[in-house]
User: Which sequence fits this backbone?
């Protein structure tokens, strides 16, 4: 049994350098000077859009202003404004600024190499995170796979995902999706500039985890994403987490009330700390009603970049021409501490998650037997929030001719007295092959570092980024996911193919599904 502060202008003097000590690349806005690091070239803090400050605070992204001379691209830009987070990737100290729309490029060489490109969208519930997190270091991809890696920042929380349009008018029409529009703008920057960094704009894979994976699926669903990406990787996230316009308007009303219903001009001048405090107030108030995890500051569809629910757009064939690698971790919900729930709380948890809690509990008890009740809750939540939506996404794509490969990450962490299992986000340093980064051992636990598994997973990701198929000599042939066979690659100390894992649990959600309270 398994155990389971003020904005910076683009012409600021400290952003310029004239030294020729580092590699140089030319972008459409001007040249950038990076640095050599660990056998690769790093260009950091490159603006892909104008600073979203002042009158642009709630505006869609605009092109960056050109600069003269070689811009200093040796240091990472500041992250989007955010409050401290509790996720595995949010424990790095965060230095934020509203002038946050920058990206980072790690490349074997800024030459004419025409290499495959991997664009990474960080997770963090659309509230936390940054592209410079050490787990997202693209150096192993560049060295081992000859891949160019781009990591990005984008607007978060109420600044990126609060649909103010019905309250403040046409000038705020994009506000429910500004963070997503930032992501699209970064992909457009890659299309227009990545060749100068040794990348091929016709071989772009977009990847992400959690909210980053939701974002990847939104790129596939969006008509504005057509032609920007050629492959996609969605880790622990599918196409199901977006608000409809009515829900978005209600959330915006609550947010505006928390800042005393300001005029449009006053909202633009409001200190960003006040916006963050109001955002947290809304989250706290709504957590009492929310069934599970769909936070208030998520994308709101209805804008032309996402004209309908992502699931509906994908059901009509959007993104089907882009190969997708997707999957989930075996114990996703362990990250949120559900493994410690007692029997009574597990029953209440199942009732919040499902429309037929008794049937769901009976189904999972048949498999888990005498497992502690908290692990029962973990299995239920993992399937309801992550695994089943991923399966439905794959099925919808298959109906439209889309090719999808699915994995399950099952390696159990030895940390926290075994209560962590294969938790949400634990697979990230395996996919990036960054297990050696400071602090990672705290989440792996004592014992030999699982480098062999990290290399096997990392090589599969490289193979998919390069060729659109994750099969490798180490893993063998990895067939695409189809409803008839439901083949899933299990990623553990011993990797291998699973055929329709946990079919009873998969089927129970066909009638026990309950939509979250927005």
Assistant:
């Amino acid at each position: 049994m398994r155990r389971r502060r003020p904005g910076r202008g683009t012409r600021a003097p400290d952003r310029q350098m004239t030294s020729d000590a580092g590699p140089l690349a030319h972008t459409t806005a001007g040249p950038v000077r990076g640095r050599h690091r660990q056998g690769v070239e790093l260009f950091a803090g490159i603006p892909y859009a104008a600073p979203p400050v002042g009158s642009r605070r709630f505006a869609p992204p605009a092109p960056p202003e050109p600069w003269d001379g070689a811009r200093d691209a040796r240091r990472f830009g500041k992250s989007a404004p955010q409050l401290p987070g509790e996720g595995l990737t949010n424990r790095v100290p965060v230095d934020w600024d509203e002038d946050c729309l920058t990206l980072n490029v790690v490349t074997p060489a800024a030459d004419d190499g025409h290499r495959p490109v991997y664009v990474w969208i960080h997770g963090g519930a659309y509230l936390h995170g940054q592209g410079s997190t050490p787990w997202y270091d693209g150096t192993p991809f560049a060295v081992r796979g000859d891949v160019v890696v781009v990591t990005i920042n984008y607007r978060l929380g109420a600044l990126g995902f609060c649909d103010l349009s019905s309250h403040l008018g046409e000038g705020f029409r994009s506000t429910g999706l500004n963070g997503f529009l930032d992501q699209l703008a970064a992909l457009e920057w890659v299309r227009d500039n990545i060749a100068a960094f040794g990348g091929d704009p016709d071989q772009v894979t977009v990847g992400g985890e959690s909210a980053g994976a939701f974002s990847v699926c939104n790129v596939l669903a969006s008509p504005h994403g057509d032609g920007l990406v050629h492959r996609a990787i969605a880790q622990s996230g599918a196409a199901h987490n977006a608000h409809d316009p009515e829900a978005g308007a209600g959330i915006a009303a609550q947010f505006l009330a928390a800042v005393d219903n300001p005029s449009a001009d006053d909202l633009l001048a409001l200190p960003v700390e006040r916006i963050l405090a109001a955002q947290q107030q809304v989250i706290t108030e709504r957590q009492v009603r929310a069934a599970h995890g769909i936070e208030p500051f998520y994308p709101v569809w209805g804008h032309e970049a996402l004209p309908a629910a992502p699931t509906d757009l994908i059901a009509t064939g959007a993104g089907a021409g882009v190969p997708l690698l997707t999957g989930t971790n075996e114990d996703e919900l362990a990250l949120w501490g559900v493994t410690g729930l007692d029997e009574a709380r597990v029953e209440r948890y199942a009732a919040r998650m499902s429309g037929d809690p008794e049937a769901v509990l009976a189904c999972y008890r048949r498999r888990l037997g005498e497992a502690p009740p908290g692990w029962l809750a973990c299995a239920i939540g993992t399937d309801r929030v992550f695994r089943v939506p991923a399966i439905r996404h794959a099925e919808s794509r298959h109906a439209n001719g889309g090719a999808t490969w699915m994995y399950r990450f099952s390696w159990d962490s030895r940390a926290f007295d075994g209560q962590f299992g294969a938790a949400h986000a634990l697979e990230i340093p395996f996919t990036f092959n960054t297990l050696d980064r400071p602090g990672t051992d705290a989440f792996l636990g004592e014992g030999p570092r699982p480098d062999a598994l990290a290399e096997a997973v990392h090589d599969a990701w490289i193979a998919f980024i390069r060729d659109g198929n994750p099969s490798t000599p180490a893993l063998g042939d990895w067939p695409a996911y189809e409803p008839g066979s439901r083949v899933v690659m299990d990623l553990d100390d011993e990797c291998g193919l699973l055929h329709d894992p946990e079919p009873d649990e998969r089927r129970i959600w066909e009638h026990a599904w309950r939509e979250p309270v927005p």
Remarks:
- The longest helix spans residues 373-399.
